[in-house]
Specification:
This protein has helices at residues 2-6, 14-39, 55-85, 102-111, 138-153, 159-171. The chain is mostly helical. The two termini are 36 Å apart. The relative contact order is 0.12.
């Protein structure tokens, strides 16, 4: 789960991107609402300027601030990986910090489809059309070599087929 919410490398498909966004929206809206319900009973005060009435109100503000920072980092990392998924640079994520642009930017990157196969940022997270592009992704080359060795060990390839295919993969063709 930490990789889903706080990793900065690789690719992230649309469904998981929206999952990260939805979780943080629910947390950032739901927790203050729960504090509001708890502290809105009679004889309690929610006056922002008067935290001395209830220290718990101040503490809830601290908790909310920590959650806001965590959600910002998580949203930025998910957006970087989402940008990587369709081949864009992660530096475009700086648009999330521009007021008035962040919602439009989130919608745009959340709706653009993934690059098919591998790109310079990694393998398609959905596993669809993952094929080796010479020089683009070493992960796919290693996966092909492992699959090839598995086929040879099961006796499905002759030694000559194995050696020829292995040489082709290592050359990047």
């Amino acid at each position: 789960m930490l990789k889903l919410f706080f990793s900065w490398t690789g690719r992230l498909n649309r469904a998981r991107f929206w999952l990260v966004i939805l979780v943080w929206w629910l947390i950032r809206i739901g927790i203050p609402y729960c504090f509001y319900l708890y502290y809105s009973y009679p004889a309690e005060s929610l006056d922002i300027n008067d935290v001395t009435v209830s220290p718990a109100v101040y503490e809830s503000g601290v908790i909310f601030s920590v959650l806001t920072l965590a959600s910002l980092l998580s949203t930025l990392s998910a957006s970087v990986r989402r940008l990587h998924d369709f081949g864009a640079s992660g530096w475009w994520v700086l648009l999330l910090l521009v007021p008035g642009v962040e919602l439009i930017f989130t919608l745009i990157i959340g709706l653009i489809g993934s690059d098919r196969g591998t790109n310079r940022f990694g393998v398609n997270p959905l596993g669809e059309n993952n094929y080796y592009i010479p020089g683009a992704n070493e992960e796919m080359r290693v996966k092909e070599l492992i699959d090839l060795a598995s086929l040879y060990e099961k006796g499905l390839l002759t030694r000559e087929e194995y050696d020829n295919t292995k040489a082709r993969i290592l050359k990047g063709q």
